[in-house]
Amino acid sequence: MEPAKALRRLLGDKEAGRLSRRLNVAAKAFAADRFTEAHAALVPVIRKAPSLPEGRELMGLTLYRMGRWADAIGHLESFRELTGGTEQHPVLVDCHRALGHWDDVDQLWRELGEVSPSAELVSEGRVVAAGAKADRGDLQGAIAMLEKGWSPPKQPRPHHLRRAYALGDLYDRAGRAARARSLFSWVARHDPGLGDVVQRSKSLS
What we know:
Elements: H1 3-11, H2 13-31, H3 35-48, H4 53-65, H5 69-83, H6 89-99, H7 102-115, H8 119-135, H9 139-147, H10 158-173, H11 177-190, H12 197-203
């Protein structure tokens, strides 16, 4: 159901119109990286319509971008309960990773792997879960996770490039400079604007 229709069903036309406008303001602010503005616009939406999935999702993502990991988890878990979806699992994994909740990281990654909603979503989750392994000192385990099933595609999409960059970073940290250089160079050919990939490629030459 569209947010505006859901709000009308929950609150009636007048209040639904006001909150729909707030939700639109928040979405535009979020897209422009104005997260404080997005948060302020969403507060009355969450207060008046706590069961609106779109409000919970956007609030969770906004708080994530603000670095408020625990608060973000609360809203994204509500979104998950309301929808049964896994599309924000990679963000949830990253929030738990930031807080050192390793059991939650592992559980969410297992859930994502079992559902396999899309190649892109699983790839994003894999990158974050591998980073969590590296955070715990298991650098080789992190590398193995990103190496599994990996081969550079002929026409890479953004999630392929992010995975390759993350794997290159792990290779670099493990002292495997030649492999790191190869991956950074491959990423730089396809997207030289991805992070500091050009500089890192040159530094390993």
